[in-house]
Amino acid sequence: MISRASRLPFIAHAQRHGKRTAVVDSQGSFAYNELLDASSRVATALLASRNDDQRNEAQRNKVQRSDLQEDRVAFLITPGFPWVAVQWGIWRAGGVAVPLPLNSTRPELEFFIDDAQASALVFDAQAASLLAPIAAARGIRALPYEQLLPRQSPDLPDIVPDITSDVAPDIASDRRAMILYTSGTTSRPKGVVTTHANVAAQIETLLEAWEWSPDDRILLCLPLHHVHGIINVVSCALWSGATCHMLPRFDANAVWDCIASGGVTLFMAVPTVYVKLIAAWDEASPQRRAELSQACFRLRLMVSGSAALPVSTLHRWKEISGHILLERYGMTEIGMALSNSLRGERIPGSVGRPLPGVEVQLIGENGALVSPGTPGEIEVRGPSVFGEYWRQPEATRAAFRRGWFRTGDTAVVENDLYRILGRTNIDILKTGGHKVSALEIEETLREHPAVAECAVVGVADPEWGERVAAAVVLNKGDALDLPSLRIWAKDLLAPHKVPSLLLVLDALPRNAMGKVMKPAVAALFPTAARGDSIP
Ligand code: AMP
User: CA-CA distance, 178 to 99, in Å (whole number)?
Assistant: First the structure.
């Protein structure tokens, strides 16, 4: 067993919080001590299995036995105590954690595993039929979680292999900790590598800004292959000695039940989650609605991020819950960068100001700083910013300018507050010589009584450069055509912002985080470039 205190701050904090509850999941409650014990066992098993793999006797020296030396360990585990035990176990053994997305197809998983050059795969029973054959086909070590931690059942023998050395690796903070895959719009997903120091900085800025305390209890309903769930929810909770209630997946009624139980003080989610919670609230009986709203009043903070929060959703959520959602802006590569204030006024449509320790600037097309009121690309610098895309030195170089990370997002500063205008290459449309923000047009279209959801994209056009194209999902029983939409919109939008193409869809294409996939939306429209006939 790994017994010596390692320098990982997570471990040092957890040791202080020993008997407090760290995680609550469908299997029960787990104290920090149990997390320390389980992650130590995972680390021990990972190190032992690696040594078993070393065929060459000469290589069996002490250093190799006691440190994975940044081997990538990919894992596919349903959110809950085992997920955290494995993540911490990989870190304690000196490995790089590569959390895989649930609900991925086999080719997608193979891509992540091959790209990361994973040397071991850890999975739970649900993922075994998918991952075991992938591991076998590649000769990668397959480590079922149930075998790593047989302790869950007291009747099972303790088969966790012992290692002769009890030396836990000292993990220097500049070592790689994690690879998260982030989808490119045109290329395959890239592995965003964060060091232990990056992870610590991403957590610490949020602990300070949102005043986390050991008395906090947060509900996780987000997937655990993304910075939002991993850093903002789980890691912030466990760094502060708080409790994380983990749902295996998002389910609106399960979330409402948990909020209604009075067991949480904090909630963080993406806008789509709030939309689904609103729909479930609308469907509940008047008495249940009152109960749910009452329960929300007891939370101290509710946060939205990872995509633009429609102002209409913010207002509706305020009516239901009494909370003005705190909107923040962040990215896999940088953690969180901008946030509305915890105690001050929260401005709908704004993402506030830079978080502590995070430097943000807006740069115009000429490469110079823009003045307030003028849109520019968001650049970020600071200890939370990642170091590299995994095995992609060219992409890494291109992502930085003079030491600042170029986010690819456009924003504007108004009244000292940042407002996000969207992805520079996707949401900033160039039509008839004007630059327009798709997010602004979407905000307006959502006010149309027939529109439930919408996504605006630019569609290449020889005359206009790009045409403003709107894909909408309508409220049940409503109808909408382009001429009537245009007449309605002309009172609210400048002529060049009024959509000239309209598609009515049953649902918008969204990714696992609930974000609208704009390239997929754009592909639904006919374009001159493809030789399609355009109305
Ligand atoms: P990801 O790396 O998956 O977290 O995606 C990051 C991207 O989500 C950013 O580059 C933005 O385009 C978008 N994003 C995150 N937060 C916000 C927000 N509050 N408003 C608008 N877009 C956001």
Answer: 8
